[in-house]
Design a protein that fits this description.
- This protein is of the alpha+beta class.
- 16% of the residues lie in helices and 36% in strands.
- It has helices at 23-37, 56-66, 84-96, 103-106, 166-169, and strands spanning 77-78, 81-82, 111-113, 123-126, 136-142, 145-150, 157-162, 172-177, 193-197, 200-204, 206-207, 210-211, 213-219, 224-230, 233-241, 247-253, 256-264, 271-276, 279-285.
- The strands form four sheets. Strands 9-10-13-14-15-16-17-18-19 form a nine-stranded antiparallel sheet. A six-stranded antiparallel sheet has the order 3-8-4-5-6-7, with helices on one face.
- α2 packs antiparallel against α3.
- The radius of gyration is 20 Å and the shape is elongated.
- The two termini are 22 Å apart.
- Mean pLDDT is 83; it is low at 1-52.
Length: 286
C-alpha cells in the first residue's frame, strides 16, 4: 500500500470519514477533524507592524483555507461568493497591494515556471473551454493540491482538487510565481499550521510552505502518520497507523517505508521487518 495515496475524483470537499469504517473509528476521526478545524478561522491582523506582519503562510493557509466551502459567484471577491480570480485576489491583495482581479491580468504577474517546479503559493492557469485561452486560475497549496473556485460540477464554489486529476492536468496552460515585496516571509518559525491537502490534513511546522519537522498527517481514508517531515514528505523516524489497527514504526525516506522497523499486523504479535520500496522484504519475530 503506498504511503501517500491520492483519490482520483472530481472536485469535491474533503471527506475524512470513509464508508466501511466502524462507528467507533468514525467517531475518533470526527473528533480529530473537529480539533483540526477549530483554528482555521482567520484571526491574524494584516497590520504593517513587524509584530503583526502577515506571512505568505497566513495568507494562503489561514485566510485562503478559511474560504473553503464559499459559493461560486461570477465577479465575487468575498465570502458571499468567489470566482476563480476573485479568490486569488482575496488571498493575496493585502500582501501584493493593487493587483488585477481577472485571470488574464493575473497571468502577467511574476514570472512563468515549469509545472514540475510548482511550489505553495504559485498560480496555475487552465484552459477549460474549447480554445486554449485562459479561463481558470487556481492557487497551489503543495502536495498535489489546488485551492480554487469552480463554477461547474459538484460541489461548486471554493474547493480542493488534485492537480494530478485527469481533468485538471490535461487542461493546464502554465504556472507563474508571484513577486513578493521585499521583506515578505513565508511562515512564522515554530508556528503550528493546519493545512488541508487532497490526501488529508497536516498539522505541524512549515519551511517555505511545506511540512518540515515533527508533524501529524490524517489521511482521508483514516490512516495516520506521526513523525518527521522534510520538503513536504515523511522523512526520518515515524509511525504509520492503518485504519484497520495495524501500524509500522521505523524510518521513512521521501515518504516511503525503508530499512528496519517494527510492524504490528492487525492480528497477531508485532514483527521486525526490513522494508524496501515500501514493501516488507524480510520478517522475523520482534
Amino acid at each position: 500500500m503506498p504511503l501517500l495515496p491520492f483519490e482520483q475524483a472530481k472536485p469535491r470537499k474533503p471527506s475524512f470519514i470513509d464508508e466501511g469504517v466502524s462507528f467507533k473509528a468514525k467517531r475518533l476521526w470526527f473528533i480529530i477533524f473537529v480539533f483540526l478545524m477549530l483554528p482555521l478561522t482567520p484571526s491574524f491582523s494584516l497590520s504593517t507592524t513587524q509584530a503583526d506582519a502577515p506571512t505568505l503562510a497566513d495568507a494562503l493557509f489561514v485566510r485562503g483555507v478559511s474560504y473553503l466551502g464559499s459559493p461560486y459567484l461570477l465577479g465575487g471577491r468575498n465570502q458571499s461568493g468567489f470566482d476563480c480570480s476573485g479568490l486569488v485576489w482575496a488571498v493575496f491583495h493585502k500582501l501584493l497591494g493593487p493587483m488585477p482581479t481577472g485571470a488574464e491580468g493575473q497571468a502577467r504577474l511574476g514570472h512563468k515556471i515549469p509545472l514540475s517546479q510548482v511550489q505553495p503559493g504559485d498560480l496555475i492557469f487552465f484552459a477549460t473551454g474549447r480554445s486554449q485561452q485562459i479561463s481558470h486560475v487556481a492557487l497551489y497549496l503543495g502536495n498535489d493540491t489546488l485551492l480554487h473556485a469552480v463554477s461547474e460540477g459538484w460541489p461548486r464554489g471554493v474547493v480542493l482538487s488534485s492537480l494530478s486529476e485527469h481533468y485538471w492536468k490535461t487542461r493546464v496552460l502554465f504556472a507563474r510565481r508571484l513577486s513578493w515585496p521585499q521583506g515578505t516571509t513565508w511562515e512564522t518559525p515554530g508556528k503550528i499550521y493546519r493545512i488541508p491537502y487532497v490526501k488529508g490534513w497536516y498539522q505541524g511546522p512549515l519551511l517555505n510552505g511545506l511540512p518540515e519537522g515533527k508533524g501529524f498527517l490524517l489521511f482521508r481514508n483514516g490512516d495516520t502518520f506521526v513523525g518527521s517531515f522534510h520538503s513536504g514528505l515523511p522523512q526520518g523516524e515515524g509511525v504509520y497507523h492503518w485504519r484497520n489497527g495495524a501500524w509500522f514504526k521505523g524510518r521513512f525516506e521521501s515518504g516511503i517505508r525503508t530499512g528496519e522497523g517494527v510492524y504490528q499486523p492487525c492480528h497477531g504479535p508485532p514483527v521486525r521487518a526490513f522494508w524496501s520500496n515500501d514493501q516488507p522484504q524480510k520478517v522475523e519475530q520482534a
